[in-house]
Write a structure and sequence with these properties.
The protein is α+β, with helices and mostly antiparallel strands. The protein contains 2 helices and 9 strands. The termini are far apart.
Length: 119
C-alpha cells in the first residue's frame, strides 16, 4: 500500500507541474485569416497567419465601378508570451495580442480596430 502511494505521488506531481495553464500555445489561435472590423464594399484589410510563421497582409480599396487598388505584403511573425512581432518589409512591429469577449483579435500597437476571424 505504501508503494502505491509513492507511485501515485511520483505520477501526479510531474503531471501537475507540466500542465501549467500559462503554457497554452497561443500561436494556434492566431493561425488563419483575420479581417479588420471596418471592412466594407470599398475597403478590406486582412491578415493571414500561417502555421510556418509566415503571413500576408492584403489591403484593398475601391470597387469595380471605381478603381480598385490592392496591396499584398508578406510578413514573418513570432509570438513570445503575449507579445506578437510582425516583420514586414524593413520594419518590425511589436504588439500585445488578445481576444476580446466576442472573439475579435486585438493588436493595439498595430491597429486601432479589431480583427474578425474569417477562417
Amino acid at each position: 500500500m505504501k508503494n502505491i502511494k509513492v507511485l501515485l505521488i511520483l505520477l501526479v506531481v510531474p503531471t501537475t507541474i507540466s500542465c501549467d495553464k500559462d503554457e497554452v500555445n497561443f500561436s494556434n489561435i492566431l493561425i488563419g485569416e483575420w479581417q479588420r472590423d471596418d471592412a466594407a464594399e470599398d475597403f478590406d484589410y486582412r491578415l493571414t497567419f500561417n502555421s510556418d510563421f509566415s503571413g500576408i497582409k492584403v489591403v484593398t480599396e475601391g470597387t469595380m465601378e471605381t478603381e480598385v487598388t490592392s496591396s499584398l505584403i508578406q510578413f514573418d511573425w513570432s509570438l513570445k508570451n503575449k507579445t506578437l512581432t510582425i516583420e514586414e518589409l524593413d520594419a518590425a512591429f511589436e504588439t500585445t495580442f488578445m481576444l476580446n469577449s466576442e472573439g475579435q483579435l486585438l493588436l493595439p500597437e498595430y491597429s486601432n480596430l479589431p480583427f474578425n476571424k474569417v477562417n
